[in-house]
Amino acid sequence: MSKDPGAALAREFLGETNALYERIVKNGELRPLTLSDVESLDLSPLTKAQEALDQAGVAFLETLDLADLLVLTHRFEIIVRALAPYGREDGPLAAHLAALSGQGPQGAYRKASAESAALFARRKLGQA
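Given the sequence above, the corresponding structure tokens read:
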């Protein structure tokens, strides 16, 4: 594993994504979520990891193995889709969900993911 600080940020973002994913998915199925369930989730570790990675540059996602990158992209999309209905503008989760979905200031990963994930995957496959 690289000692590069940017690579560490990418691994931290992957770890926080996996941790939240495991809280909302059980045996490969999305758990039925209530507003109370969603409000009990601590989204701040994931949004902080995302913000740090955004500031360092999402290109550091390239330091992840292809398998990790694909898992990250897939799980992050599931998280965003699962939590999106709870992101009302006046709700307590609005800022966190806006950041995760790319609507807020820390949303660079989400904004870039559609274009960059495929590019990163192609680069990784080209290196294999």
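Confidence is low (pLDDT under 50) at residues 105-109. Try to locate this feature in the token string yourself.
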